[in-house]
Design brief:
Blueprint (H helix, E strand, L loop, with lengths): L2 E2 L2 E3 L3 H23 L4 H4 L13 H29 L10 H13 L12 H25 L10 H27 L17 E3 H7 L1 H23 L1
Antiparallel strand pairs: 1-2, 2-3
């Protein structure tokens, strides 16, 4: 466990990089995806300086491809990294739906929330929702690439389903982004924001709202101190 005054490290550098690269990639994919429909050339009455390229199908297509590659890479890195390190705190668990209900009910009634792990049940469900939407968009995106490959032909049915699933994935991701941002309307959630910038969150916040995780960290710290003392005694 890493401390910094009265703060605890919640998001290491790797997590922060994945978060911001994913956020930036998704934003650019949505912007360039709309450009391929095409919307900007038809309905954008006023074009801010530096956005003329959005009206070009060819440019938005290649920019879209670039950020699709970036997103694919960062997702692959994210999975491999956490599997190797055996860190599965954010993965959904049995009982998360009920747990989310209990926490939301406690917040509405202004009662003490039940003990939670490093991530709240609704945070794990949100992660699964994002993963599902991104997964659909990525897989269907590969099918959509086929129509732009020279010498490769695909059935109209395959292209249709690929387009529909890609649209579905985009809608789910967009919904997920809005829900993710809306979560910070709740005052208690705002204390998590520093974690995605500096990596650290308030120790008292962790102790109060993520007590299960806090107890795990305390046990790890005690074990580290014990091992250190044993080495010094030898």
């Amino acid at each position: 466990m890493k401390y910094k005054k009265d703060k605890i490290l919640r998001q290491p550098l790797s997590n922060r990089i994945v978060h911001w690269v994913t956020a930036g990639s998704i934003l650019m994919l949505i912007i360039t995806g709309l450009g391929q429909m095409p919307l900007y050339g038809r309905y954008l009455l006023w074009q801010p300086f530096g956005t003329k390229w959005l009206t070009s199908y060819e440019i938005t297509l290649w920019v879209h491809y670039f950020f699709a590659i970036v997103l694919t890479f960062i997702m692959f890195y994210h999975l491999v990294y956490h599997i190797i390190k055996k860190e599965f705190h954010i993965w959904p668990k049995k009982g998360d739906i009920k747990g989310s209900y209990e926490i939301i009910k406690a917040m509405i009634l202004r009662k003490k929330e039940p003990p939670s792990d490093k991530y709240l049940p609704e945070q794990r469900l949100a992660y699964a929702f994002f993963a599902f939407g991104i997964g659909i968009a990525m897989v269907s995106g590969f099918f959509k690439i086929i129509k732009n490959m020279h010498g490769v032909q695909a059935s109209n049915e395959l292209l249709l389903w690929g387009a529909q699933l890609h649209n579905l994935g985009t809608v789910l991701i967009t919904m997920g982004v809005f829900m993710h941002l809306a979560a910070f309307i709740v005052k208690a959630n705002r204390k998590l924001l520093p974690g995605m910038f500096s990596g650290f969150v308030d120790k008292e916040y962790v102790k109060e709202r993520h007590s299960n995780w806090y107890n795990e960290l305390e046990q790890e710290l005690e074990q580290e101190i014990k091992l250190k003392n044993e080495k010094q005694a030898q």
